[in-house]
Amino acid sequence: MSTRFNYDRLVELYAQYDMTPTASEVQGMLTGLIATGSDAKSNELMILMSDLAYDGQGLPVELENLLQQQAEEIEHSLGDEDLGYRLLLPEDTTPLSDRLSALAGWVNAFLVGYGVNQENMTNLSGDLKEAIEDMVELAKIEFTDDGDEEEERAYTEIVEYLRVSAMMCYAELGRNELPANQPPKILH
């Protein structure tokens, strides 16, 4: 994801606000919400993030602005024709165990965001249904780190699979542009 924020910088910024989720988890949650239809520019998204990531407390203005910017970048990159979406994870120089932990957090948080907007999987394409089922299985795995080349390769393949799955989810379920003459639906 071409972003002005990197993993380490977001870790620092979120720590200033005592956020419970990690930077990877916040991105996973935002991605799951946006990929299933939440509008990145909506107040509803920030209310959801307050509930899910900030213990239901009101978001400080600076944190809300930061989350809003991140949400808009995620939405843009998920729909990018150049496939620009990237998972927000620690750098490759970080020990594999830390990267695996962040990856597990991203998957679990994506599924939380996904679950907010998707009640069932009956209308999903076969490919997306399989990807979501794979994510559920990945969320159950306790990753181990032997630090060998094979595990590095597996990590890279899983990250790429999740990246493509998130973009596929957005393409299938994400916010669709309404025709100019059709007002948006209000859900209450």
TrEMBL record:
GO terms for cellular component: cytosol. Coiled coil: none annotated. PANTHER family: UPF0149 PROTEIN YGFB (PTHR37528:SF1). Belongs to the UPF0149 family. This is UPF0149 family protein. It comes from Idiomarina abyssalis. The lineage of its organism: Bacteria, Pseudomonadati, Pseudomonadota, Gammaproteobacteria, Alteromonadales.
